Amino acid sequence: IDLETARQELEEFIPHVKNISDSSIKKMAGRDLTRFKEFKKQGIAVKFGRFTQKENQQIQKNVEEFLALTGIDSAEKLLFTSRYPEDKDTIHRLKTEHHFCEKISEGIPRPWRLIYYRARKMFDPNNYKGRYTKEEKEKLKKYQALYGNDWKKISELMSRSNLSVAMKFSEIKSAINYGPWTKEETQKLTNAVKEVMRSKLQSENPGSVFSLDQSNTDLWIDRELLYQALPWTEIETKVGSRYWRQCKQKWNSILTSKLTRGQQLYRGINGLKAKINLIKRLYETRAEDASEVNWDELSNAIGDVPRAYVQAKFYKLKVSSVPLWKRKTFSEIIDYLYENKLPELEKKL
Asked: Helix 134-147 vs helix 151-158: angle between axes, to the nearest 10 degrees?
C-alpha cells in the first residue's frame, strides 16, 4: 500500500503516527499493520508503556525459538550483530530468510521496533555489570576526551552498553547542584525541552509546519509527544547545572502541574471520586503485580495526568490506608483497599 494509506491505517492503532517519519511508516506497514489488524479481530488493543512480565517471557520465548530455528548460537549475536563482524553476513542472511521481525513480535500487541529495543535491553550482557569501579570511571573520562560523545565506540572499548556509558559520564563529568531549582534553571529546562522537541519534529517531518512558540498558552505540550523518550543527556547539557535524572524528575513535576492545573483533582468531592475510581479500576485489572498494570490507561481514572502521578497517588493511598502493606502482595493490597477503604470512601462521598 502507498505511504499515505499506510499512515491512515496505522493511525487507528498509533495515535501519534503523524509524528513518525516516512521511512519508519514504510517499515511499520510491512512489519506491524497486519499484526495489528489480527490483534483487533481478537479484541486486543495495541499497547505502549512498560512491558509486563508476561510480555518479557514471550520475548524470551520468541528469541529462543528463533535461535533454535536458525542455529545462531547466542542472543547477543542475534541482537548485537555488529559485535561479531566475521559472522555478520551469515546472521543477516538467516534473519532475512526466517523473517526475524515477524518472529520476534509473535504474540505481543506492540510495534515491532519497541519489541526489538526491549529484547536488546533484556539480552545485552553489558547491561548487567554492576557499579563502575574507580578505574572504569577514569577510563570513561579518558575515552570521552579522545572520542567525544561517540558512545557506541566507547561502549565497545569498555564492554558496557551505549546508554550506560553515556549516562555514567553525564553523572561524573562535573559538580551538580542538588539544591532547590531556581526560576532561571526551570526556564532553561523548559527551553531545552522545547528545543529538542522542535528539532526532533522537524527532522521527522521536514515538510510540515509546526510551532512550539506558543508557551503562553501551553499548546505545545502535546500528551502523545511528551510520552516519547526525550534525549536527557542533551537536555542536561543545555541546562548546565543539573544531572540528567534531576532534569527528568523536574520535567515530570512540571508536566503534572501543567496537566492538572485547574482540575482540582484531589480536593473535596473530586478527590473522593478520584480515589474511588482508582481503587475500582485497579481491582478490575485483577493484576498480580504492579508491572501488569497499564498505568497510562489508569491515568483516565483521575484525569488527564502522567502515569507517574497516578502511581504516586496509589502509593499514598496504600501507605495511609493498608496496615502492614509492606508484608502484603500487590493483589492483597488491592483487595484490602477494595473491601475496606472503598466502602468508607463511598460512605464519605
From this structure: 140
Yes or no: say if 135 and 150 are a contact pair by the CB < 8 Å rule: no
Cell numbers at 82, concatenated: 555488529
pLDDT tens track for 134-162: 888 889 989 988 998 888 889 888 888 88
Q: What span, in angstroms and rounded, lies between the C-alpha atoms of 240 and 182?
A: 13
DSSP 199-266: HHHHHH-TTS------TTTTTT--HHHHTS---HHHHHHHH-SS-HHHHHHHHHHHHHHHHHTTT-TT
Q: Contacts from 94-97 at CB under 8 Å and sequence distance 24+?
A: 94/70, 95/70
Based on its alpha-carbon atoms, the radius of gyration of the chain, rounded to whole angstroms, reads 23
pTM: 0.46
Q: How long is the chain?
A: 349
Taking CA atoms, 66 is separated from 78, 79, 231, 347, in Å, by 9, 11, 32, 56
What would the pLDDT profile of 207-248 be if each residue is shown by its tens digit?
544 444 443 334 344 444 554 567 888 888 888 888 887 888
What's the N-to-C CA distance of the chain in angstroms?
Answer: 54
Cα torsion 35, 38, 39, 42 to 10°: value is -170
Amino acid identity of residue 86, one-letter, is E
- Least Cα distance to 315 among 296, 294, 330 occurs for 330
State the Cα–Cα distance between residues 233 and 253, nearest whole angstrom: 18
DSSP classification of residue 51: P
CA distance 306 to 41: 30
> Alpha-carbon distance 85 to 168, whole Å?
27
